[in-house]
């Protein structure tokens, strides 16, 4: 029986009963749909959180390699240690699994620019700074272009010397 069938019922109490039953059914249906939608959104948020955690792990491998290389170069040693090489391999493996297409392209560009700008410290720092911002963007941060992350690694004297 449809809701419109209530107009064919003559008794007022029966009409009220039918409309009450219809209201209960609609409320129950709405409640079930609301729960289903909320459960779906919760699963989506959990999935997005899982992806973010995996991306953070991937970025951590890059940071580990980056700081290992930076520390060794600063101490006048060979930057590419076994540890740094292993961390970069883990980063690249993770980047293939969890990195966006844009970040993968930015990394390849970053790596290419390292070879192109060998010996040009300022260009290398700017290149690294851009890639670090791209990684932070991948993790959900919204940094302005004026943020210079590499200045965190430089001494005050080096920042002045490089105009950072």
Tell me what you see in this structure:
With 164 residues, the protein is mainly α. The chain has one domain. Helix content is 74%, strand content 0%. It contains five helices and no strands. It has helices at residues 12-74, 82-98, 101-116, 121-138, 156-162. Helix 1 (12-74) runs antiparallel to helix 2 (82-98). The chain starts with 11 loop residues before the first helix and ends with a helix. The relative contact order is 0.07.
Q: What can be said about the biggest beta sheet?
A: none
Helix content: over 70%
Count of the domains: 1
Terminal CA distance: 77 Å
Summarize the structure in short.
This protein is mainly α and 164 residues long. It contains five helices and no strands.
Layout of helices and strands:
Blueprint: H1 12-74, H2 82-98, H3 101-116, H4 121-138, H5 156-162
List keywords for this structure.
mainly alpha; single chain; 164 residues
């Amino acid at each position: 029986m449809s809701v419109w069938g209530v107009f064919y019922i003559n008794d007022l109490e029966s009409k009220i009963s039918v409309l009450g039953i219809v209201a209960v059914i609609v409320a129950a249906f709405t409640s079930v749909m609301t729960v289903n939608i909320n459960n779906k959104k919760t699963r989506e948020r959990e999935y997005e959180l899982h992806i973010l955690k995996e991306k953070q792990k991937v970025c951590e491998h890059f940071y580990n390699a980056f700081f290992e290389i930076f520390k060794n170069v600063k101490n006048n040693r060979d930057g590419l240690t076994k540890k740094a090489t292993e961390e970069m391999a883990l980063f690249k493996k993770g980047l293939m699994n969890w990195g966006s297409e844009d970040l993968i392209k930015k990394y390849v560009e970053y790596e290419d620019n390292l070879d192109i700008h060998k010996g040009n410290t300022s260009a290398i720092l700017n290149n690294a700074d851009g890639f670090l911002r791209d990684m932070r963007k991948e993790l959900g941060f919204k940094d302005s272009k004026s943020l210079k992350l590499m200045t965190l690694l430089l001494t005050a004297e080096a920042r002045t010397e490089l105009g950072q």
